[in-house]
Amino acid sequence: MRQTFGVRSRVPSRADHILKPMGKPSTRYYLLLVTAGAVALWFFLAWGWQLRYGLVVTGLADWGTSGGVPWGIYIGLFIWWVGISHGGILISAGVRLFKLRVFYPVARLAELLTIGALSIAGLFIIIDLGRPDRVVTSVIRAYATTVHTSPLIWDVTVITLYFVLTATYLLLTIRHDIYHLGRRLPSYFAPLYRLLTHGYKPEEDKKVERMAWWLAFAVVILAPFLLHGGVIPWLFQLIASMPAWFSPIQAPTFLSIALTSAFGSVVLVAYVFRRVYGWTEIIPDKAFARMGSVLSLVGLFFLWFQLQAIITGAFAAPVGLRTATEAKVEDPIYWTAIVLVAAAVLYLGAQTIWSALFSVRRVVIASIAPVLATLFEKTLFIVEGLENPAFDIYKAVPGHYFPTWVEISSIFGAVAMLVLFFAIAAKVVPVIEVEAEHEE
Amino acid sequence: MEDNKGLTGSEFGEEKNERVEQSLPVTQFDADLGKEVARDARILVAGGLSEVEFYQRYHQAYLKEFGIDGRQINQGEGNTASESTFPKQISRRTLLKAGGVALASILGARWLGGKAYASGPATGDNYDGLPLRGEDDQPQQNGRVQMGMVVDLEKCDGCLDCVYACQKHNFNSAGVLWLYVLAYRDENQDGRNFLVRLCQHCSNPPCVKVCPVRARHKREKDGLVLTNYSTCIGCRYCMVTCPYGVNYFQWSDPEYQNYYHPKLTDYRGWWVIGNPPKGVMGKCTFCPDRQDDGRGNVVCALTCPHNVLHFGDLNDPNSEPRRYLVEKTKEKGGQLSTFRLLENYGTKPNIIYIGQQPSRSARPVEGPVSYADWGLVEKRLTVLEGPEPWFMKAFGGNP
Asked: For an engineered disulfide with A105, which of A85, A245, A283, B3 has Cβ 3.0 to 4.6 Å away?
């Protein structure tokens, strides 16, 4: 099988399919826009409420004498969305570096998911701040110093780098498609397309292919090992005050959770597009079966690391860690997460071995479970950690946290924003790579 | 404020006066005046007396007694940034200072007493058992100043005077206890003991390291760990990182916001003093204004009636806390039990406790004086309730 990104003279016959989302919007499309827009607007109003009255409208409070938890679902959502953003680059890496053709049809969707999810993750950092108005000035002024010491700044740095690399990757590969789809693209976006394809020459494809390879290579190292297996767990792992966060396997644990949520989300996004545009041939069953298999594998790692953490934390750990572990295993939310992932792993693993069990619908349902489970796990990780500090002598420790309507709105608001992002992106750029059909 | 209970006559009653007198063995100043001003200062902070009234009531007596009124900062004797910024009228700031000076020199009369006993025989220089460790702690190294405290827990009786003074002096919101006194029982210790928890002003402060914007910083001049209220973005990473739990976020508009227009700045012109604005982190500051204008004391230590808190430069063998350690060691026949809180975390805290360290089995108990007795809120979560829009109320409010 020859892997090319090269130009072929003829426009693919499947271009009709690929261009389908870019046609005249249907009533249902407008309905989707209005619904998602309303939910997103609701969230922005809730955020406005928070900005007006302060973070007191959240369920957060100081730890220590106050009996609260200073970080909650916002930080949980931040990590969760960064985790989801890993789907894109890993699918692309599979396609480009390991020549896994089966994932080719979902590569562009997954890359778009990376961009969308990463933007939302960044937004949650801003939402969590007490003074978001100062973020640009304060951070930039202090950057040269704080980048040496503050894990938060490491996160900002690596996420920015990740975003730039992924966006560049997407931009480079999209130029080719837009050029080749040419006049069949909607004319009202013509200025945008001219901008995107500025200076494009068919001869650049070879070079772009090499660049894309190197970008995929860079990001496949950056995202798993430096971001979710690096600076994001370090945000917690390097903090001595909260024993629950102290673990040498925190980075692999985080990565396993990220990949679980990432593959689950890619399955969901791919399924929605397949369903809406009738792309049963464009995104074949085989793609879902394979994504399901990968999901079962990363889910297995998820469970394995959780087992390790519980065994070491509960058996002969120092008092602080043992207290925190006990609090975790007594929490029904934790077990909900574990059961959801375990169920998904069981089914998805079984369908890998015994193909008679496979159906697209079942894989999709099994993919919803880990996506939800990872959100529970992530939020619990933050909250349980903060509720069980090393210095637990205070009367009010362990604390208590439950999100308020503002925080809960943010979950739905963020999902609505992602829906809007995909709805609009699908109208503007081809969400399936044009060149794929040559290889089948 | 209606709740003046315990703040007028009875609170400063016979028993307390006796205690104060006992702890004032050598002072050339008028202790009776001190007690009077102290009483009124408390009534003032509780809202029972207007600031102008308070100012006028003691102005003459003050000049007579000390020959100088620390409150006359309009005459240009001072050199702090805050003074030069607002020289025109008697601002709230001036009045706060006035109250502060009154607190300083009289309420606590401790300070004066402290000066007196500090003039005893000096043996600090070759003192071996001084619990100072680490390179930063070497006495007088590079002439570096590191303000800190010696807290004699053996003398603490849990009266919460210091907590009240700190809370009111900084106009903090309900439940914000920059200084917190915890009563606990420990199976390894006898009876009920106390832990006075304030910011440890660490020499290796984790909160400073993790701050993404350098708002949390260690002041060069005297090693205070402070928050620049003008640059803090409110990410709360310092609170998450601090192993002592000393940070208190400003979750909503401060209850006494109007007191902090104008902002209280230190000698660098940085807004680091008093309660923080909405969305910004606060914690115990060691009263930087008092360090900058030469008073060199902190409100909590001045207020303590039992000689528990000793504030000063830990690197200076002649400082009050260092001398106190020497005295106390002698008193104990050379065997003094001291500790620093969670020292194994490598934070190099600058609060030296005299007494026994609470162990893992220490459990909080009720103290002799409750926070409610002082009109204070102990568990802030109970008062942190934001406004809810009407449509949420219709749904029955937050879970």
From this structure: A283
